[in-house]
């Protein structure tokens, strides 16, 4: 687990308190541009004046925030304010936090519970479930170890995202708006939107498939899409009654998934011995490499990296107080770990159920999200509650919850990159429409063909995989900067770990892209066009890495120390 503050990772140079001028930095030029360019960029980012009664929020503040002050959950308990008043003078004088951190409190942990579980839903969306069932059907129990370590890598990335949001008081999209020039910001925003739309199509289609199953085929896919779009707004309306109410809805949906898939696990009784061996003994063959890549690729969702850095701001934490930031990071680390343990168990249930039923059979290569329930029913029969409907209930909970978080992420991405002070229902309508319209087209044209839906799902997986660097590289760049993170920036050892994980994820997804292109891309003209796009793609990733000169210089210094 990523410790909130690791003494070995804390820089030994004179420490500064988390920049108290962070909100003011929004009005300052970026540190890498010329003064003239900075002024132009600043002016271009100012919101246009709007008249009263418009769709924009009327506020004296010039920037969009993930949560308004009155929406945030208050964490301070009785006695906290007195302790802060006693320490406030010392902190301001020395820039350091005297004394030890507050003792662990179960009540505080309960108050911090929520953002991590919302984040964990991206590990349980219908796209992940399809990856799980295909991994189990084709590779059996042999990739369980990879699922476990991929979840651990996902936890590391999400903890960095939470660290960024808590230490700065702003989320990743907002910081990208300030950090990068306009053209790069436009590209990053476009890639985030494309990734989100791709994920949303899978999520909505998954929910529509579940509705079709539970209605016994009476409702076609397009009807399920419409229902999902409508009830998504109903759930988001609950946010008007407080963040905790919405988090309770997500907790109910996660519990529904856990009970449904645990029930399936109990009904099918996968081999406990094979399960333990699969977790502890790494195995990988040429026949299962594609499923292995899919398992890892499904774990890191680009929009989820943006989402978590915003969700942690739903708690009222003063980023100027180091003691409170450390405390928040400690509780968020515990909460996020618990959430991903739950998500790992759910993914484990799905993988082992399909490993038990279909590994080594002829049906294994034909199983997809839409026909999985029927295959399960044919294999394991009915009973008091047929396994087909248990699968449908779990899939519906996964689709509904991930669709809502996708809408949530879309609001933060749009608001952060563009600083739009739009009313929430307008932002929700825009982000929902951007996904529902293409999803409706997909539902109408692909409703009659399971094979076509599987091919589309492969395209969408590739689409999301190629977007991963555009969330990971900015995140790792920003959490490494002292002027942004203050004393909470990651240290040298954590840099090595995180950049190694990022490189591994990028390489794995590059393999998926090349493997897919080698099978799907035909013709000289089309191939040349794809080659040009790939060249531009790689060039932009290199730009994101080398733009912060400290990163390549740091790699060079490590290389010289070790090998020269």
From TrEMBL:
Residues 1-46, 78-102 are annotated as: Disordered. GO terms for cellular component: membrane; trans-Golgi network. The keyword Signal does not apply. Its main location: membrane. It is a multi-pass membrane protein. Keywords: Membrane, Transmembrane, Transmembrane helix. Coiled coil: none annotated. It is found in: Membrane. Residues 78-95 have a biased composition (Acidic residues). The chain crosses the membrane at residues 109-124, 144-166, 217-237, 249-266, 289-311, 331-350, 388-413, 425-446, 466-484, 496-514, 526-546. InterPro entries: NRAMP_fam. One of its GO terms (molecular function) is manganese ion transmembrane transporter activity. The keyword Membrane applies. It comes from the Eukaryota. HAMAP family: NRAMP. This is Natural resistance-associated macrophage protein 1.
